[in-house]
Design brief:
It is a single chain. The protein is an alpha+beta fold. The chain is 27% helix and 24% strand. It is built from four helices and five strands. It has a five-stranded mixed β-sheet with strand order 1-2-3-4-5, sandwiched between helices. The longest helix has 16 residues. 22% of the residues are buried.
């Protein structure tokens, strides 16, 4: 089905594990093991998959505890479809669900890679360092 934005649709739900891994790597994100993906996807609080003529070409997920803390993860669009506002469509769907269901006191975080920060800023996300905190991470299996 085509909509006002062309042959693209954002649908609620997460892709299969195989499609999830392909979407990540196609978009230049790191791969995850099939075992990790199968553990992770059922714990998605809310997710969307972006389709082009019924082929999955992008996605985004929200994970968290459902009350106090949420994180937006896995936002990606296949490079052949980038530059058409599709990341904005994914983020719109995710933030609308947060506004609809998340408590007003919830903390929502994300990691912005490179120029993606400009997309996220349009949705009210700010650099934590300017607020006296700094984002940190640890990858398991690395010393």
């Amino acid at each position: 089905m085509n909509d006002a934005n062309g042959p693209y649709q954002v649908r609620a739900g997460v892709p299969s594990g195989e499609v999830f891994r392909r979407l990540r790597t196609d978009a230049g994100l790191s791969d995850k093991t099939p075992e990790a993906v199968e553990l992770a996807l059922p714990h998605t609080w809310y997710g969307v998959t972006l389709y082009h003529q019924d082929n999955p070409i992008g996605m985004g997920r929200i994970i968290g505890d459902g009350g106090t803390a949420f994180q937006i993860v896995d936002v990606c669009v296949h490079p052949a479809h980038q530059g058409h506002g599709l990341g904005t469509r994914i983020m719109t769907a995710l933030t609308q669900e947060l506004e609809r269901r998340a408590p007003a006191t919830a903390y929502v975080s994300l990691i912005a890679d490179g120029p993606a920060r400009f997309l996220y800023e349009k949705f009210g996300f700010a650099d934590t360092a300017t607020h006296g905190s700094i984002g940190m991470y640890r990858l398991m299996g690395e010393d």
